[in-house]
Design a protein that fits this description.
The chain is mostly helical. The protein contains 13 helices and no strands. The model has no long low-confidence stretch (mean pLDDT 90). This is Fatty acid desaturase.
């Protein structure tokens, strides 16, 4: 089986699992709905990991090795499950790669002059799962509002707030996208609405599934960087987690290797592992909030299993 065929099979399996689990969460009794919610938090993270592959153009390469049509359409489908648009996710994620551990992405470091309430609000939004609904609503606002409103938001943060939250860079990146990026967002919304109508999903079932997914997804999005060296390529961790969980997330926990080699697909990351701390050790340290760099915790390296 080719790598592209394997990824397509995984995409189809994750999509079918999502459909079944959202339907079960909407219609099953509590004893069936609760496991469905918990399993959705995993299956939709597999979907997000496939979206991540599409963002980097390694889900299915084109004839000349770059992003091909299959990569792009599979990326749009994967993005619809977040829901977001492929172009928006790509511009955000590649901005993250360029700015990793720079002053605009040092959410874990307390600096002189930081807007402290904003620093802590952003931090705990990540670790309570609030980051997911903010991301979804932000993408919808982007699709529905003109540029001047987004720039007004940057000004509302103030100069220091715009830097410490990364708003300057990320909203600026959105301004470079064309109408097709908005159409992808509308397509993702239509995808969700269609299946909600076709399978009679309830608001309660949908929200429970996405709340669980959002908490798991959001927590991982900065745990793999928190308290790491302030270096663009080395400012990440290869987090030690159980093998089965690492496979569900398609090696997403091997984030240091990914930042060093962003051109590698998920199934090759394990060939270049570096030792790193346990996910739980970093996550628990994060619950205490950001701190000055001299007060960073020191983690014990663990074998990646």
């Amino acid at each position: 089986m080719t790598p592209a065929a394997r990824n397509i099979l995984l995409l189809a399996a994750a999509a079918c699992a999502n459909l079944a689990l959202l339907t079960a969460a909407s219609h099953a009794p509590l004893w069936g709905a609760l496991p469905a919610v918990l399993l959705f938090s995993l299956s939709n993270n597999t979907m997000f990991s496939l979206l991540h592959e599409c963002v980097h153009g390694v889900f299915a390469a084109g004839k000349k090795g770059g992003r091909g049509r299959l990569n792009e359409w599979c990326g749009r489908l994967a993005a619809a499950w977040f829901p977001t648009g492929l172009s928006v996710q790509r511009v955000f994620h590649l901005t993250h790669h360029r700015n990793n551990r720079s002053p605009s992405e040092q959410f874990d470091i307390l600096h002189e002059g930081d807007v402290l309430w904003l620093k802590y609000a952003q931090w705990y939004a990540i670790y309570t799962g609030v980051y997911w609904p903010v991301s979804v609503l932000g993408v919808l606002l982007y699709a529905l509002t003109p540029r001047f409103l987004r720039r007004a938001l940057v000004r509302a943060f103030g100069r220091r707030g715009g830097v410490q939250t990364g708003a300057d860079d990320y909203i600026g990146a959105l301004d470079r996208l064309g109408m097709s990026a908005r159409l992808e967002v509308f397509g993702a919304a239509a995808w969700q609405l269609f299946w909600a109508w076709a399978l009679d999903w309830t608001w309660g079932g949908w929200l429970a599934c996405y709340a669980a997914f959002g908490f798991v997804w959001s927590s991982l999005q900065y745990t793999d960087h928190a308290f790491s060296p302030p270096d663009c390529k080395n400012g990440a961790w290869n987090l030690a987690v159980p093998r089965l969980l690492r496979l569900v997330f398609l090696n997403y926990h091997l984030h240091l290797t990914h930042h060093r080699h962003p051109e590698l697909p998920w199934y090759e990351l394990f060939r270049r592992p570096a030792r790193g701390p346990r996910f739980t050790d970093v996550w628990l340290a994060c619950l205490r909030g950001p701190r000055r760099i001299e007060d960073f915790p020191r983690f014990t390296e663990r074998d990646i299993v």
